[in-house]
Design goal:
Largest sheet: 6 strands, mixed
Strand content: 15-25%
Distance between the termini: 30 Å
Shape: globular
Radius of gyration: 18 Å
Structural class: alpha/beta
CATH topology: Rossmann fold
Number of domains: 1
CATH superfamily: P-loop containing nucleotide triphosphate hydrolases
Strand order of the largest sheet: 6-7-8-3-9-10
CATH architecture: 3-Layer(aba) Sandwich
Number of strands: 10
Helix content: 25-40%
Number of helices: 9
CATH class: Alpha Beta
């Protein structure tokens, strides 16, 4: 771990999952999802396709409801909140969706302004200033007037990331941030995740199956296997643990994968 990165154990968890259960009909995703996430760390959730990695993120911000168990964020129990109660949580937790989830009919600037207006960021001048700031952070200055259809896949991801950081969240969720990108854009997005973590000091939760990316920017790894997190630890601990499935995953082995539910 880099010396200028905060220790993930320096304070109490900012987010906690405790004995969470989740199923879609007969398909059981979690029997015991238990995980602590600490302020300022980058934790990467890995696991086979269909094991429920993205479900973890969606339960945290209330897009999916846990069947049982506890999910807390910033000292607030998330599982009992309705839509209005979730708004303060969603203001502090931003998500970069797998497909960037941009509004095709809006320009880049309008896409980024959308959450800013939702959170009453300021007048139009302040919104324009903030849009320019975050586009510069992700390496897309001057792209305000473009439509999503005019952007490459990598550019769309970067605009989605600009929108995510625009409201200055405490936590950023990344759902398969490099899926479908060419190697150049994979390196660019991975570099952005690392640089933004350093620059903004946010807590980052990354869902990915890309182990090269994982070892580039993560502080800890959480392996989702057999409907629970069967390993949680640092990169060094991951390399030296005796979890056979984790070692196969790191080496490129896929194990026995479930059908896709993400």
């Amino acid at each position: 771990m880099e010396p200028d990165r905060p220790s993930p154990y320096a304070s109490d968890p900012i987010i906690s999952f405790r004995a969470v259960k989740k199923a879609f009909g007969p398909k059981v995703i979690y029997e015991d999802c238990t995980l602590d996430i600490y302020p300022g760390e980058t934790i990467t959730i890995i696991g086979g396709s269909g094991t429920g990695k993205s479900v973890t993120l969606k339960m945290l911000i209330g897009l999916l409801k846990a069947d049982e168990g506890s999910i807390s964020a910033f000292g607030t129990e998330v599982t009992t909140l309705g839509e209005s109660g979730l708004l303060p949580i969603r203001k502090r937790v931003a998500m970069l969706f797998q497909g960037a989830a941009l509004f095709d009919s809006l320009t880049v600037a309008q896409n980024i302004k959308y959450p800013l207006r939702e959170h009453h960021w300021g007048d139009e001048k302040r919104l324009d200033e903030r849009v320019a700031e975050v586009l510069d952070m992700v390496g897309l200055p001057g792209s305000q007037k473009l439509k999503p259809s005019e952007l490459s896949g990598g550019m769309r991801k970067r605009v989605g990331l600009a929108r995510a950081i625009a409201v200055e969240p405490d936590v950023i969720l990344y759902d398969e941030p490099t899926t479908g990108l060419d190697p150049i854009n994979v390196r660019r997005i991975n570099g952005l995740i690392l640089s933004l973590q350093k620059r903004l000091g946010v807590t980052s939760i990354v869902v990915t199956h890309d182990m090269d990316a994982c070892f580039t920017f993560t502080d800890r790894i959480a392996l989702l296997h057999n409907r629970r997190f069967s390993f949680v630890g640092t990169k060094d601990e991951a390399h030296h643990c005796d979890n056979r499935y984790l070692q196969e995953f790191i080496a490129g082995g896929r194990g026995t994968l479930d059908e896709d539910v993400e």
